[in-house]
Amino acid sequence: MGRLSGFRYRQIIKKLKAFGFEFFRHAAGSHEIWRNSATGRFTTIPNHPGDMPEGTLRAILKQANVEPDEFLEKK
């Protein structure tokens, strides 16, 4: 298990809000689009129960242009 495993939806949202992301709209199924108005970046986040797979979280961070180390340091 990597450093980015074991995060749940609520934990990820809390950290992304600290980076300036806000809920933008619902997407297909249980997915949500979040937007950072300062950078104009969008990211899609699945709202599923349980832990987010590490690969999915890495894709979210890549879309958001957030480095994994920055994400882990953010409270």
Summarize the structure in words.
A hairpin with a 4-residue loop joins strand 1 (21-26) and strand 2. The longest helix is centred in the C-terminal third of the chain and has 11 residues, at 54-64. This protein has helices spanning 9-18, 54-64, 68-73, and strands at 21-26, 31-36, 41-46. It has a single domain, classed as 2-Layer Sandwich (Metal Transport, Frataxin, Chain A), CATH 3.30.920. It has a 3-stranded antiparallel beta sheet with strand order 1-2-3. It is α+β, with helices and mostly antiparallel strands and 75 residues long.
CATH superfamily: Hypothetical protein
Give helix and strand order, one letter per element, not per position: HEEEHH
Number of helices: 3
- Our measurement of the CA-to-CA distance between the termini, rounded to an integer number of angstroms, reads 21 Å
> How many strands?
3
Radius of gyration: 11 Å
Assign an overall shape. Answer: globular
CATH architecture: 2-Layer Sandwich
Q: State which percent range the strand residues make up.
A: 15-25%
- Sheet with the most strands: spatial strand order: 1-2-3
> Class, according to the CATH hierarchy?
Alpha Beta
